[in-house]
Write a structure and sequence with these properties.
Strand 1 and strand 2 form a beta hairpin. The chain is built from four helices and three strands, in the order αββααβα. It has a three-stranded mixed sheet, with helices on both faces. It is an alpha+beta fold and 119 residues long.
C-alpha cells in the first residue's frame, strides 16, 4: 500500500477518533483527552492511537481506564465512518510529549528568571 494512502488514513482516523472521544463517549471517567497521532501498520491490521491526557495522576488513570474500556465502541464507530475492508485493531498509547515540552518550558523560564535576578 502506498505511503501517501497510509498517511491519509492515519490523519482521517485521528480526526474521527478525536470526534468520537469528544462527542460520543458518555463515560464519566474520561476527562480532557487529546489524540496527538495515529500510526497504522502497512497492512492496516493495527493502529496505535497516541493520546495525551491532562489532569492529576488519578484523573489520568481514570481516563486511561475509560478509554481502554471503550476500545470496541471506538473501533466500531471508526469502521462505520471510514470505509475500509478491515477496520484496524486499536491500541491506545499514552503520549507524554506534551508533558515533557511543558517541563522544558518551565525550566527555560526558570533559567531566564535566574539570569534576570543576577543582573
Amino acid at each position: 500500500m502506498s505511503q501517501l494512502r497510509i498517511e491519509k488514513i492515519q490523519e482521517l482516523m485521528k480526526q474521527e477518533i478525536s470526534q468520537i472521544i469528544l462527542q460520543e463517549l458518555k463515560d464519566p471517567r474520561i476527562g480532557f483527552v487529546t489524540v496527538t497521532q495515529v500510526e497504522v501498520t502497512r497492512d492496516l491490521s493495527l493502529a496505535k492511537v497516541y493520546v495525551s491526557i491532562m489532569g492529576s495522576e488519578e484523573q489520568i488513570a481514570k481516563s486511561w481506564q475509560g478509554l481502554n474500556s471503550s476500545l470496541g465502541f471506538i473501533r466500531r464507530e471508526v469502521g462505520h465512518r471510514i470505509r475500509l475492508r478491515v477496520t484496524p485493531e486499536l491500541k491506545f498509547v499514552l503520549d507524554k510529549s506534551l508533558d515533557y515540552s511543558d517541563h522544558i518550558q518551565k525550566l527555560l523560564l526558570q533559567i531566564e528568571r535566574d539570569e534576570q535576578s543576577r543582573e
